[in-house]
Automatic annotation (TrEMBL):
Cited InterPro entries: FAD-bd, FAD/NAD-bd_sf, Ubi_Hdrlase_CS, UbiH/COQ6, UbiH/COQ6_monooxygenase
Gene Ontology biological process terms in this record: ubiquinone biosynthetic process
Annotated FAD-binding domain residues: 7-320
Entries under NCBIfam families matching the protein: PRK08773.1 (NF006448), Ubi-OHases (TIGR01988)
Official protein name in the record: 2-octaprenyl-3-methyl-6-methoxy-1,4-benzoquinol hydroxylase
Pathway where it operates: Cofactor biosynthesis; ubiquinone biosynthesis
Record family assignment: Belongs to the UbiH/COQ6 family.
Lineage, uppermost ranks: Bacteria, Pseudomonadati, Pseudomonadota, Gammaproteobacteria, Lysobacterales
Cofactor: FAD
Keywords of the record: FAD, Flavoprotein, Monooxygenase, Oxidoreductase
Length: 392
């Protein structure tokens, strides 16, 4: 039974993961509030967002359930049908092809700003109560719920609080949940570039001793790059003029798509691994970046966060079908064990790949290229790797 004037669920954080969570839970008929410190700027087609995602099929299904996927696709997305991964030291290539998996595409490249814009546009009609701009200043556990105090002096009570407020989550800290963090001493340099050759609806990634370099296909024929570099190299590359940057980028990419021309501003962001030690504290849970931050080399960050949402929604739906307490410690613990295991496995796998392929040791250099080629020739291996990444 929900207490009078108490919400079923309060979601804190209105990014992709938090907004999708609020929408999906509202579809269950729950009374949901979304607390966010800053309203997102409207998405503009003439100002592409530098932050893009390689969006997986299972999460497209989640957004379809939320009623926003069609509006995202109608605005601007680029499907990719192939992936090609190779190592600078030589050897074979690891390739994935949608035809081999009986699919029209492997996934989609989508701008962060577009996703947030369409999710927020759907909140009012779904009945989600929006508390923005608002920050959580205090958290008080109750016997059967949580009380939040916001920075405007108001209070919210909910049966369950979901923290989706990013890597520096204030709710996670207020709930006393600790994290284990590792700084990669790398930065991801991002920009949009034109290439001399078409992107071929292919997501490309070359491993270099300095870190991976990805070219992701975009709807206007351009490519979004994510260039992982040690911090000093990233600073140097960011300081280059456009012409020098173009030359160095094309060389680093082995001219696979011909000469390049940067067509946007550039940005660089620090890379780290951060894992919450616990996902649950009483009736507070953490999801998305508040729970796990992983290396971007596989483009799985937002996909892992949305899988937190799907698993949590499934757990809550099952509990309500049995008229059980969806926020009971036992139920939340079961959800947390599964998601923490999956996310930690992914985080350490990406960590290991980054270490091996960024090593200039003789053994690693001699082995990694041929191993990529071998994996690419073993269809069950490529199927398994893709199914893991796609969530199918």
């Amino acid at each position: 039974m929900r207490h009078r004037n108490r919400l079923d669920i309060a979601v804190v954080g209105g990014g992709v993961v938090g907004a999708a969570c609020a929408l999906a839970l509202s579809k269950l008929g729950l009374e949901v509030a979304l607390v966010e410190a800053h309203a997102p700027p409207p998405w503009r087609a003439d100002r592409p967002d530098l932050r893009v995602y390689a969006f997986a099929p299972d999460n497209a299904a989640l957004l379809q359930h939320c009623g926003v996927w069609t509006s995202v696709v109608d605005a601007r997305v680029q499907s990719y049908r192939r992936m090609c991964v190779w190592d600078a030291a030589g050897g074979g290539e690891l390739q994935f092809d949608a035809d081999a998996f009986g699919r029209d595409e492997l996934g989609w490249i989508i701008e962060h700003g577009l996703l947030v814009d369409r999710l927020w546009a759907a909140l009012p009609a779904a009945g989600v109560q929006l508390r923005c701009p608002s920050k959580v200043e205090a958290l008080e556990p109750l016997d059967d719920g949580v009380r939040l105090r916001l920075d405007d002096g108001s209070r919210l009570e909910a049966n369950l609080v979901i923290a989706a407020d990013g890597a520096g989550s204030s709710v996670r800290e207020l709930a006393g949940m600790e994290v284990d963090a590792h700084d990669y001493a790398q930065r991801g340099v991002v920009a949009y570039v034109e290439t001399g050759l078409p992107h071929q609806q292919t997501a490309w990634q070359r491993f270099l001793p300095s870190g991976p370099l990805a070219f992701l296909p975009c709807a206007d024929g351009s490519s979004s790059i994510v260039w992982t570099l040690p911090e000093d190299d990233a600073t140097r590359v960011m300081a280059l003029d456009d012409e020098a940057f173009d030359r160095e980028l094309a060389t680093a990419f082995e001219m696979r798509l011909g000469p390049t021309r940067v067509m946007s501003k550039r940005a660089a962001f620090p890379l780290r691994r951060q894992l919450a030690r616990d996902y649950v504290s009483g009736r507070v849970v953490v999801i998305g970046d508040a729970a796990h931050v992983v290396h971007p080399l596989a483009g799985q960050g937002v996909n892992l966060g949305l899988r937190d949402v799907t698993a949590l929604v499934d757990s809550i739906r099952a509990a309500r079908a049995r008229r059980a307490d969806y926020a009971s410690p036992q139920r939340l613990a079961r959800w947390a064990r599964t998601r923490r295991s999956d996310n930690a496995m992914a985080a350490y796998a990406f960590d290991g790949i980054n270490r091996v392929f960024s090593s200039d040791g003789v053994a690693a250099t001699l082995l990694r290229g041929p191993l990529l080629g071998l994996a690419g020739r073993l269809l069950p291996v490529t199927h398994g790797l893709w199914k893991r990444a796609a969530g199918v």
